[in-house]
Design brief:
The protein has 659 residues and is α/β, with parallel strands linked by helices. It contains 20 helices and 20 strands. It folds into three domains: 183 residues, Rossmann fold (3-Layer(aba) Sandwich), CATH 3.40.50.300; 176 residues, no CATH class; 167 residues, no CATH class. It binds adenosine-5'-diphosphate and magnesium ion (MG).
Length: 659
């Protein structure tokens, strides 16, 4: 049977600041199963270095090492971690317990990395063995030094190791507590576990059955202790079960994932302000994404509904101020004028014109009872009903006679109807428009918002009534022209243009003082504005997601360096590189996902606000929520990768020494 530990010619050289330091200078050592060895020597003689090499936390610069007959110099880091977690338990001078974590969870940690079931039960069991059965829920800061060290011993025991390495386990304890700890180690040794203990105090070494003295990196003395303190008695041989199956590298377990999510949320909670600030970028980015998608979708939808039913053969003629070279634009009186006569003449401009209708519009005050609202007034011809797809769903539209006689009748948009009448029936009632009494004859079908303006907030009255009685205008705001077929629109536009130029007596060098647009162009212009808006929000979103990602990367780097000791400890008790990588990736993703979820809520609130109070069309789709969620998680993983990788590559021993 091979010895438990066999090293020969082991050296260790540290390179510091250009120079090199030989700490171990050819150490040979055999330790059999069941021994209790004390390694002694003055401070700086290389005791800890030797123990870390024996414990697979560090590699020798040269020399050979066989553990359980296995040549460990051939093991990869992760294989070393796996072997370590199943055969070796560590007890450190500084206890190295995780803060804010219960004794039970601290003790259970090594089992998380071996993936064996029954962690909580086994942790409670070993805590009872070290006499702390009544302290399971205590965090390290709620325990005395001796109790903390007992928790650390319980943690070293949880995976039933063959070997315990204890580096100055009593160095931070008062002597009564030190004796208690040594008693535990003796008990363990009696049960068959090999104990290697480092100390520089002869009193403590006197408990061991074999004492090795180290000086300046070489063994100067190695002898049995014929009468060890503490009453060792006979050690029950566990040698028979020494040689183990080669430990395999484990797959990531679901339990480990859940544990990582839990500890990530715990870390976020422990640093609330810091976490909240680092989430801010993601939060703003996701808010912008949600609002952007909602506004974009809403605008698209409203343009569609607004234009649906309006034929592509509709052409609009608007007045504009002519731009004269170098002159000021839009000076008073330079606006072109569209008259009713223009509308009549245009109707005869081309045989492809089916019908034309003039319109005026303005803003007015409307009163019913004690209700008083401002709304948009449109004066229209009876053709408006057909040409603009505005048949009342309730009551009737006005007729040519109403228009001729300047009748005071009004058709209400649904918004105005609700604002003035609530649930009452408006048809047949009288309202005052700019102090003139009108009779309501119909209510229009709901059309929805056109992105920036509520199309249902409107009152339509006969054109002549509007021009002469209410608004006092002689000129039209727009003339709608309907071509008989979409194929005619270009010819109709050309014909109308030439008629209008003639009627306005425009010389060749002057630009048009009117504007002709067909429906396709209007549609493009409408969706163009919302596209620009979406693009702007998209840029904001992209920038803040990048900034947010950098914020998360930054905070994760801080977190990794703050928790270097924790990482070192986790690796020392068996965490593989991948386990550490995944732990920190999950933490970064948790951070950004929390920010993302808050951003989703805020974005939905903004979309809701825009559509409720500003009258914009904003539609939040489930796809956009899913997109935003995965985007934020992705940003966390992307920007968290570097810090997580940094953490996973830390060497356990350097990390443990980190101050
Ligand atoms: P001790 O016997 O007190 O446990 P150590 O094994 O911790 O001694 O250290 C032995 C020597 O090696 C010391 O002089 C120390 O300064 C040096 N040393 C330990 N670790 C490092 C390191 N990571 N880099 C450089 N020098 C180190
Ligand atoms: Mg030391």
């Amino acid at each position: 049977m091979p010895p438990l530990i066999e090293i020969s010619g082991v050296t260790k050289t540290y390179f510091v600041g250009g120079g090199s330091l030989d700490v171990l200078k050819g150490v040979a050592l055999r330790i059999e199963a069941g021994e209790f060895v004390a390694i002694m020597g003055p401070s700086g003689s290389g005791k800890s270095t030797l123990m870390q090499i024996l414990g697979l936390l560090d590699r020798p610069s040269s020399g050979s090492y066989r553990l359980l007959g296995l040549d460990v110099s051939r093991l990869s880091d992760d294989e070393g971690a796996a072997l370590r977690s199943r055969t070796i338990g560590f007890v450190f001078q500084m206890f190295n317990l995780l803060a804010r974590t219960s004794a039970q969870d601290n003790v259970g940690l090594p089992m998380l990395y071996t993936g064996e079931p029954g962690r909580a039960r086994r942790a409670a069991e070993v805590l009872r063995e070290v006499g702390l059965g009544d302290r399971l829920d205590h965090a390290p800061n709620q325990l005395s030094g001796g109790q903390q060290q007992r928790v650390a011993i319980a943690r070293a025991l949880i995976n039933r190791p063959r070997l315990i390495f204890a580096d100055e386990p009593t160095g931070n304890l008062a002597s009564a507590q030190a004796e208690e700890i040594l008693g535990r180690l003796i008990d363990l040794n009696r049960s068959g576990i090999t104990v290697v203990m480092v100390t520089h105090e002869p009193d403590i070494a006197a408990y061991a059955k074999r004492i090795i003295k180290l000086k300046d990196g070489v063994i100067v003395c190695d002898e049995a202790n014929p009468s060890p303190r503490g009453g060792h008695g006979q050690s029950a041989a566990r040698q028979a079960e020494v040689l183990a199956q080669a430990p395999a590298i484990r797959e990531l377990s679901g339990e480990e994932l859940i544990e990582h999510v839990r500890s990530a949320l715990g870390a976020i909670r422990a640093n609330k302000l810091r976490s909240a600030l680092s989430m801010l970028g993601i939060l703003i980015g996701v808010t912008a994404v949600i609002a952007m998608l909602a506004v974009g979708k809403g605008a698209q939808k409203s343009v569609e509904t607004q234009l649906s039913g309006l034929g592509s053969n509709l052409i609009m003629l608007f007045p504009v101020s002519p731009r004269t070279a170098g002159g000021p634009r839009g000076a008073q009186g330079s606006f072109s004028r569209l008259t009713l006569d223009d509308a009549v003449m245009i109707a005869r401009a081309h045989p492809g014109i089916a019908r034309t209708a003039g319109e005026v519009s303005g803003s007015v005050q409307v009163v019913f009872g004690d209700k008083n609202v401002n709304t948009n007034l449109t004066g229209a011809m009876p053709e408006y009903e057909q040409m603009r797809n505005s048949t009342p769903f309730y009551g009737r539209f006005f007729t040519a006679e109403d228009d001729e006689s300047m009748a005071r009748v009004a058709v209400l948009g649904p918004t105005v109807a609700t604002n003035l009448f609530g649930d009452q029936d408006p048809v047949g009632r009288s309202i005052n428009i700019e102090h003139i009494k009108f009779r309501v004859i119909g209510v229009l079908t709901r059309k929805g918002s056109s992105g920036f303006r509520d199309q249902d907030d409107v009152i339509i009255i006969p054109l002549k009534t509007a021009m002469k009685r209410v608004l006092g205008r002689q000129y039209l705001s727009v003339v709608s022209i309907e071509a008989a077929s979409p194929d005619d629109t270009d010819a109709v536009i050309a014909a109308v243009r030439s008629v209008m130029r003639k009627r306005h007596r425009l010389p060749d060098y002057k630009d048009d003082d009117f504007m002709l647009r067909n429906m396709a162009e209007i549609q493009a212009a409408l969706s163009g504005t919302s596209k620009i808006f979406s693009l702007l929000l998209g840029i904001v979103a992209a920038i803040s997601l990048i900034v947010g990602g950098i914020g998360i990367m930054n905070i994760m780097l801080v977190s990794v360096s703050e928790r270097t000791r924790e990482i070192g400890l986790r690796k020392a008790i068996g965490a593989t590189r991948r386990a550490v990588l995944i732990q920190f990736l999950i933490e970064a993703a948790a951070l950004s996902t929390c920010g993302g979820l808050m951003g989703i809520l805020l974005g939905m609130a903004i979309a809701f606000g825009l559509s409720t109070w500003a009258g914009w069309a904003a539609i939040v789709t489930p796809q956009s929520l899913v997109l935003a969620f995965f985007f934020s998680a992705g940003v966390g993983i992307l920007f968290g990768f570097w810090p997580a990788r940094k953490a996973s590559l830390l060497s356990p021993i350097e990390a443990l020494r980190y101050e």
